[in-house]
Amino acid sequence: MSTRKPKAPDTTSHAPARRTSETSLVDRLLDRIRGQGRFDTGIPHLTFYRFDGPTSPSGYLLEPSICMIFQGSKKVLLGEQSHTFDGSRFFVTSVDLPVIAEVLEASPKQPYLGMVLTLDRMEIARLVMESSLPHAKNSMAGEVIELGEVSRQLLSAVMRMLELLEEPEFIPLLSPLIQREIYLRLLMSECGPKIRQIAVGGSPTHQISRAIGWIKSNLNKRLRVEDLASLAGMSVSTLHHHFRSLTSLSPLQFQKQLRLSRARLLMVDEHLDASTAAFEVGYESPSQFSREYGRMFGAPPLRDIKELARQSSRIGKPQYP
């Protein structure tokens, strides 16, 4: 398994100002967010997270997003890749990814604080068209999970969005403007090529997104790669190449991880037994489901769900970090 760690924090002349912004932002988040878990906001696409201790691995589908950590650290597993993130870098994804994440560093005195801003493809496309930014080529850009430097300007925009929550009457007018600024700064960053791929119709990213959409909507159906390739407008070999380049997984591996994560949610949220949950997501063999579930989450379904129930008594319903 490969492990990719973030680079050292910025040591340029802007670093002291950035650290001041980070401290102020953390203080505001601590004042605003009480308790633990996921905190949706009145601002579209924006979610904050707080955890007072390390968490067990949680599997979920991460939409195209920018993810930032302001305090603490977490590990994200995607296929055979392992990424560890802290506040020195943000990361961006351009397609839906079935990830497994866990908070590594957090305590009651220094809780984990994170943010996810889901990317608006249409808004990014408008920005690319309206600006003088170079157009993205129809080629793959960068890593599956792209890392970027947390700049002082980006932190300032996030801070203004957080402050906007204190004036909810201005959210409909001002939040789209601040989000446009964040998108523009992302487009101008080292992650720009990946962000621009989201907006390019007919690009491999756009075609693979169509294939992923079918998998999501037909989770309990048999996946025929030939049909998926036809839907994406690609040959089978081209589909495999671009699918793995964008997700680090084959289509069948992607479906399996999504099925297992969905089954886990069904057992937690709807209290289904393992066999019923397995059938609901398309498994025909309960024993195969149990084996693959244990490989993904580190424990068989019954033991894993008991541990999640124990955690939920401490922090409420299991949340995505």
UniProtKB/TrEMBL annotation:
Keywords, comma-separated and alphabetical: DNA-binding, Transcription, Transcription regulation
Region called Disordered, residue ranges: 1-22
Domain HTH araC/xylS-type: 209-307
Entry keyword annotation includes Transcription: yes
Keyword Transcription regulation belongs to the record: yes
Protein name stated in the entry: AraC-like DNA-binding protein
Pfam families membership: AraC_N, HTH_18
SMART domains in alphabetical order: HTH_ARAC (SM00342)
Organism domain of life: Bacteria
One term of GO molecular function: sequence-specific DNA binding
Organism: Roseimicrobium gellanilyticum
